[in-house]
Amino acid sequence: MNKRIAFLASDVPVAQTARSALVARYGNCAPRDADTIVALGGDGFMLRTLHGTQHLDVPVYGMNRGTIGFLMNEYGEADLPERLADAQEEVINPLAMRAMDQSGQLHEALAINEVSMLRAGPQAAKLRITVDGRLRLAELVCDGALVSTPAGSTAYNYSAHGPILPIGSDVLALTAIAAFRPRRWRGALLPKTAKVRIDVLEADKRPVMADADSVSFPDIDWVEIRSATNIRHRILFDPGHGLEERLISEQFT
């Protein structure tokens, strides 16, 4: 029995060309009718696809037509049904963010990679960090801080010198971005069940923005971050090239 495939592609010409070739070869259907969604692009497009189709409970198989492609498989037109049949599934949960801005408006967003707080002016941010209602850091002077999932730990988190987390570790990474005080504080590992609150100190003088997978909100007073275990993203990888293997390999390059 042939599987129904929905092909989605980013706007870049190489991804659109690939989509046309695959649709001509294998046909196409709407994502809501698909057994598998094939996303053609880079990691950014993969994140947008996962966010946009999370209500469908359909696995997503990415093929790299972008730049980095950490969440993607190698591109190839031949034997796609066989590759999909042999693919291994990884299930990840996103982060849920609630953020209050200085006007009193509440914003909500989901992040598969990370939620970050970033300074939005010339002066360093001053942040206060509370975990599960307990004050853990009264003042962090920095360019920002982020909370990362295991799936996102090799992205911005890794660039900020945060740890790479195994997929099955059930922990989150709390990582400082260019910390000035405490100068040597690099962050913490937290249980997946933790609820993190970050308050902005001197918000008028030191404005801070919140970002959840590139969805940004300016002039933030505080954010609350937790793992959304009720939401499951199903990602397919070729055998031997799943997220677990990629996370390990990344530490030896």
UniProtKB/TrEMBL annotation:
Catalytic activity: NAD(+) + ATP = ADP + NADP(+) + H(+)
Positions of the catalytic residues: 43
Documented EC number(s): 2.7.1.23
Chief localisation class: cytoplasm
Cofactor: a divalent metal cation
Places the protein is found: Cytoplasm
Keyword annotations of the record: ATP-binding, Cytoplasm, Kinase, NAD, NADP, Nucleotide-binding, Transferase
Source species, domain of life: Bacteria
Signal sequence coordinates: none
A Pfam match: NAD_kinase
Binding site for NAD(+): 43-44, 48, 113-114, 143, 151, 154-159, 178
InterPro entries xref list: ATP-NAD_kinase_N, ATP-NAD_kinase_PpnK-typ_C, NAD/diacylglycerol_kinase_sf, NADK
GO MF annotation: an example: NAD+ kinase activity
Function: Involved in the regulation of the intracellular balance of NAD and NADP, and is a key enzyme in the biosynthesis of NADP. Catalyzes specifically the phosphorylation on 2'-hydroxyl of the adenosine moiety of NAD to yield NADP.
Record-stated family: Belongs to the NAD kinase family.
Protein name: NAD kinase
Organism field: Lutimaribacter marinistellae
Encoding gene, per UniProt annotation: nadK
